[in-house]
Amino acid sequence: MTDNGAEEGKVAPAEPTVRLVDKLQEQWRKTKEHAETYPYVWGSYILVYSGLAAYLTWRWRKLRHTEDRVRALQERLKKLVEADEAKKPPSGP
Predict the structure, then answer these.
(1) Where are the transmembrane segments (predicted)?
(2) Which of 1, 9, 25, 60 has the fewest CB atoms within 10 Å, i.e. the most exposed one?
(3) How far apart are CA 10 and CA 54, in angstroms?
(4) H or E element: which one contains 42?
(5) Would you give per-residue pLDDT tens digits along the chain (93 residues)?
(6) Do residues 60 and 54 touch, judged by C-beta distance below 8 A?
(7) What is the spatial distance between Cα 25 and Cα 47, in angstroms, rounded to a whole number?
(8) Residues whose CB falls within 8 Å of the CB of residue 34, separated by 6 or more in sequence, listed in order
């Protein structure tokens, strides 16, 4: 007797992969047809999302620049406090 369960186990993992690839290819084909049919819609998508990406990039860079300035000021303040503490005479009883 042959074990049909073992044979099915060998075939089963390959099927979902094939289905996934077919599904992705079909979705790509539909998207391509839609883009060819409605180019202005896709152009507006590109314009809006690239503008959003540019704005977010600008804000991120501005935030990073502000953080760098704050770190530099904190370091400068730390050095001033250390220098001030070094100038004070030790207090004793």
Answers:
(1) 40-58
(2) 1
(3) 49
(4) helix 39-87
(5) 455 555 555 555 567 788 999 999 999 999 999 999 999 999 999 999 999 999 999 999 999 999 999 999 999 999 999 999 888 876 655
(6) no
(7) 26
(8) 42
